[in-house]
C-alpha cells in the first residue's frame, strides 16, 4: 500500500531532484544517451549489422539513429499501418525498421535515386525476410509520387517518412499529404538540422529550406503537428479529416 500525503505535507524529495529538473527537453550527454539506449533499445541483430556496415560508408551521418528507428516502428504499429511511403532510402535502415513493424501483407513504397546505397539496403531487406514488402523505385521521388497519384493512390497510405534532399521537402510534403489518408501520419526528419535553423545568420540553401518548411507547417490548418527533439529533429504531422 502506498503512503498518503496531505496537501500540507511536503512530498519526499530524493537528493537534489527538483534542482535538476528543467522545463526544456533534457540535454543528452553521451553517458545519458548510452543509458537511454541500454535501457530501451530493442534492436534486432539484422538492424544492428546494417547500422554497423553503414558506419563505414561515406556520409554515414545520413543514417537515422537506432532509437529513432524504434520510435518509428512504434508509430507504424500504433497506426496498424499496411501501406507506407518513404522518400529517401540511403542504405535502408529506416525502410527495414518500417517493414519489420508492418504486418506480413504490408507494403512500403520506397523512393531513392542511388543504386549503390540501395544495393546495401536490398541485401539487408533480403536477410531480414522483408524484401517482398518493399517496392523500391529508383527515380526522382516527385516522379514516383506523381505516378502514385496518377494511379489513383490518393488517400491510400497510412504512414510516410521524408528524409531526402532538404530543398525539396515542401514538394515531398505536398505529395505525401495527398497520398496519406485522413488520420494518417507523415514523419519528417532533420527538422532541427543540427541547431542551424535557430541561427538566422546561417542562410545556406538546406538550412533555409528546412527553416521555411518548419514555418509553413506552423500555420498549416490541414494538419496537427509536433516537432520533437529526437536525433536531428523529428516532426510528426497528422492529417486532419477535413484535409481529404
Shape: globular
Q: Name the strands of the widest sheet in spatial order.
A: 3-2-1-4-5-7-6
How many E-type strands? 7
Distance between the termini: 51 Å
Low-confidence stretches: 1-13
Summed up, the helix count is 9
Keywords:
disordered N terminus; alpha/beta; seven-stranded mixed beta sheet; single chain; 244 residues
Q: How would you describe what is shown here?
A:
The protein is α/β, with parallel strands linked by helices and 244 residues long. It has nine helices and seven strands, in the order H-H-H-H-E-H-E-H-E-H-E-H-E-H-E-E. The chain has helices at 17-20, 30-40, 45-54, 66-79, 93-101, 115-128, 141-150, 169-179, 205-218, and strands at 83-87, 107-112, 134-138, 157-162, 180-189, 223-228, 234-239. The protein has a seven-stranded mixed sheet with strand order 3-2-1-4-5-7-6, with helices on both faces. Strand 6 and strand 7 form a beta hairpin. Helix 4 packs parallel to helix 5 and helix 5 (93-101) packs parallel to helix 6 (115-128).
